[in-house]
Sequence to fold (341 residues):
Amino acid sequence: MTPLTITDLDARIWREELDEFVPSQVYDIHTHLYSWRHNLDPQKASSGYAKLLGEQFAEATTELADACDAQLMPGRSVERLSFPFPFPHPCDFAGANAFVAEQARMRAASASLMLVHPGLSDDEVERELDQHGHLGFKPYRWYSTTGDAVNCRITDFMSERQIAIADRRGLIIMMHVSKRDAIADEENLRDLTELSASYPNAKWILAHCARSYSAWALERAASRLRELPNVWYDTSSVCETDAMDALYQGVGCDRVMYASDDIPVGVLRGKYITFGYAWAYLSETNHSMSLAHCDGRMTFTRYEQLRAMRRAARRLNLSKTQIQALFHDTAASLVQAARAH
Ligand SMILES: [Zn+2]
Fold:
């Protein structure tokens, strides 16, 4: 059971725009499976996360993710690369990592990544990798040693020693880059270029179209990114056709992978919007627009993202094989390569 209801508006968007586009086999490369109990903040009941992650989606299991996918993309078989939700410190990292590993084991081709912070010792990391079979790492900018989650560099929130472990074991690093200009930031580009060259067996995935919610960041960065052979991209939560177009064209479609950012982002009603050099989440409850002249209801973030993926695919006239790669084959091969190492 999920808390989701499919309205006539959702059903129409799926039927008229998306059903034909989404292939029968899907590999979702960016999914959060977690339990609210791993958030150790004593004030969590009054925190900004409480309603959504404490009440509505307090336990994000494989079963719940399956049920959400069955409602939103009926008839598709979905495998996933999952990792915990990055609760800020204090977070029960070991508990969250054990939970996601157990959930991922329920599907043969699914896998998990380990939530890491720079304070973890090599021994702790290696032991957890061996114990749970994680295929890589999920660092997050909350855990920056600088205390600044907005302007931190990659190695501020993921130690180079952890990157070296990923390199030695051929593992995946799910990277949500920080900074105001995201992937267009010169320091981020230089760091990524140097780190991916120094650690060539680490497999980087830049989340959210390299955190380019509209086209400008990718337009600035793509010519340098496409030179990096061990970097891939996920499309999770990006809702703009121009961003997808910049990604498909800029880095090459064969490096791009579908992802939902469930749970919960993909299943929330709303959309990431952009203006100027900004991006923000627009939801049913955080605006005061007058919408009396039209059908003002919102659909799922996932559907807005799939619409953007489809329109950009149409612009480039992607073949069925390329679309199949986008939704499944590239991700399945990447996970397989990390597993086989
Ligand atoms: Zn995410």
